[in-house]
From TrEMBL:
<dbReference type="Pfam" id="PF00291">
    <property type="entry name" value="PALP"/>
</dbReference>
<dbReference type="GO" id="GO:0005524">
    <property type="term" value="F:ATP binding"/>
</dbReference>
<feature type="domain" description="Tryptophan synthase beta chain-like PALP">
    <location>
        <begin position="36"/>
        <end position="321"/>
    </location>
</feature>
<dbReference type="GO" id="GO:0018114">
    <property type="term" value="F:threonine racemase activity"/>
</dbReference>
<dbReference type="GO" id="GO:0030378">
    <property type="term" value="F:serine racemase activity"/>
</dbReference>
<dbReference type="GO" id="GO:0000287">
    <property type="term" value="F:magnesium ion binding"/>
</dbReference>
<keyword id="KW-0456">Lyase</keyword>
<protein>
    <recommendedName>
        <fullName>Tryptophan synthase beta chain-like PALP domain-containing protein</fullName>
    </recommendedName>
</protein>
<keyword id="KW-0663">Pyridoxal phosphate</keyword>
<comment type="similarity">
    <text>Belongs to the serine/threonine dehydratase family.</text>
</comment>
<keyword id="KW-0460">Magnesium</keyword>
<dbReference type="InterPro" id="IPR036052">
    <property type="entry name" value="TrpB-like_PALP_sf"/>
</dbReference>
<dbReference type="GO" id="GO:0070179">
    <property type="term" value="P:D-serine biosynthetic process"/>
</dbReference>
<dbReference type="InterPro" id="IPR001926">
    <property type="entry name" value="TrpB-like_PALP"/>
</dbReference>
<dbReference type="InterPro" id="IPR000634">
    <property type="entry name" value="Ser/Thr_deHydtase_PyrdxlP-BS"/>
</dbReference>
<dbReference type="GO" id="GO:0030170">
    <property type="term" value="F:pyridoxal phosphate binding"/>
</dbReference>
<dbReference type="GO" id="GO:0003941">
    <property type="term" value="F:L-serine ammonia-lyase activity"/>
</dbReference>
Amino acid sequence: MLSASHQQQQVSTLEEDPVGLEDILKAQSRLQGVAHKTPVFTCSYLDKLSGCHLYFKCENLQRVGAFKFRGAYNALSFLRVSKPHITDVVTHSSGNHAQALALASKLLGLRAHIVMPNNVSAVKRSAVESYGGIVVLCEPNLPARESTAEKVVQETGGEYIPPYNHVDIIAGQATVAAELLEQVPDLDAIIAPIGGGGLVSGTCIAAKHFSSRCKVLAAEPAGADDAKRSLESGVLIPQTNPKTIADGLLTSLGDLTWAIVRRHVKQVITVRDEEIIDAMKIIFERMKLVVEPSGAVSTAACLTNEFQKLGFHKVGVIISGGNLDLNKLPWL
């Protein structure tokens, strides 16, 4: 029940990408007038530090403060049509997917049941509840989260909506890069943070169809570098014992996202937590934007020697989210 559907598991073994141009166009149509068309910012100071022109796609200014709203709304919008009898949706998440699913459910007349660990911050729980989500607490470990979500699915007859390993979620996230390439059409590359891979895999599909010359890079915390190790080995390596301040990037790639990442991502650049914090401070001070650690990872990667050696001229940088506790800023 909690894994990807059999159909999704089958499609990930095919040579074709599990998400295509038609899926992105349908997602754009569903999100029209619902999701924000987020702005693109520039910063001459960061241009100087990176050695190229950077164009920041500000998904921290998206509804719920993160790109996750796009995928959640797209998936639930399609669900309302494909399974009109479904009244409840279920997920387990302590991050932005929880808030996104709660708000999307509210807008579409569904009940969202969000399984969260019992040590989740009051700020995150309050945010989910403010969007109408029904919070179900469990022990703070993955088996407990999965078993509790399974129980809620059985009790409610609800549909489980995973945070990234789902074709409609990926298609929704692809609209970020599709929009960016419309705003800045001649980019050499786009770099986005990678955890479960929904945003990066969506970016790959968008770049493939809207700008074939645009390369896709992924940015990853050094303390949670399963994507880098997977891409270098050619085999999916699960995430184990991640340790990073970027708490939105702790999950492993899924079978669907891995199928896209291994085919299309040019390179994964890892950054240390100290570099992530430095990038956050620069974004706060120079761009006047609130950004969470996970959202600053792509900017941090652009300041590394590894990135600068690639020689790009114009690069899109996705700032994925801005949800953090302002009482716990990492440099305080």
